[in-house]
Amino acid sequence: MFTPVKNTKVYEQVIEQIKYMIVSGELKKGDRLPPERELVERLQVSRTSVREALRALQIIGLVECKQGGGNFIREQFEDNLIEPLSLIFTLQESRNSEILELRRVLEVETASLAAKNISDEDLDTLAEIIKRMKSHPDEQENVVLDKKFHYVIARASRNNLIVSILTAVSSLMDSFIKEAREAIINRDENKETLLEHHEKIYEALAAHDVKKAAKVMEEHMNMIIKNMDLY
């Protein structure tokens, strides 16, 4: 019924206070934290404890220090997920297929949400990407356009967590199976099929057809997974 009561280090209490300020809305993304001296006075702790707390928050990616400007709550968090995911992938001896399976799960549901929430501006961006794909760009541009296409769809879901996680997963793919991804996108026999998939996804999103968007996205991801198994 009971658990041992542990002493909490002072700097950990400072961290909890700052977290509470975020949860309560007193601090938001991009906000500047009070200066160290003010934090010392308000929290009644030593400057060492404040600095330890700020350093810990910087390490986990919640706070960033701008030279000469002070400490700020970060505005972008996608990069913070990449290193932990990479370490987990390596330490657990995961297979490349697990990255692909995770991406498929996320992308299919993301397409459904995007079909509900996508804006005309997002659709225009997707149309322009497809137009550039049809112009037969070089291999490197093909890969960049493909990533951008999926990023726009993630953004169109209007779910910031999905955007962050998909961005991290995409970077994980680049780290571990980048060459295979590039090879698949640029194989002649796949180019036409991939372009057709992108057009079908666009059409489903433009029609705000939730079920069709999920279906064609799943077909697209299955095709990628099948081809990556060759490498």
Summarize the SSE layout with pairings.
Layout: H1 10-23, H2 36-43, H3 47-59, E1 63-66, E2 70-73, H4 78-91, H5 96-117, H6 120-134, H7 139-156, H8 160-186, H9 188-206, H10 210-228
Antiparallel strand pairs: 1-2
Helix pairs in contact: 1-3, 4-8, 5-7, 5-8, 5-9, 5-10, 6-7, 6-9, 7-8, 9-10
Helix content: over 70%
- Work out the radius of gyration: 22 Å
Instruction: Name the poorly predicted regions.
Output: none
Strand content: under 5%
**Strand order across the largest sheet:** 1-2
Q: Structural class per helix/strand content?
A: mainly alpha
Following the backbone from N to C, one meets helices and strands in this order, namely HHHEEHHHHHHH
- Sheet having the most strands: 2 strands, antiparallel
Question: In total, how many beta strands?
Answer: 2
Shape estimate = elongated
| Helical run tally | 10
Report mean pLDDT, rounded to a whole number.
Answer: 88
Termini separation: 53 Å
Describe what is shown at a glance:
With 231 residues, the protein is mainly alpha-helical. The chain contains 10 helices and 2 strands; from the N terminus they run αααββααααααα.
If you had to describe this structure to a student in words, what would you say it looks like?
There is one protein chain. It is elongated, with a radius of gyration of 22 Å. Helix content is 73%, strand content 3%. Helix 5 runs antiparallel to helix 10 and helix 6 runs antiparallel to helix 7 (139-156). It has 231 residues and is mainly alpha-helical.
Key attributes of the depicted protein:
two-stranded antiparallel sheet; about 230 residues; mainly alpha; 10 helices; about 75% helix; elongated
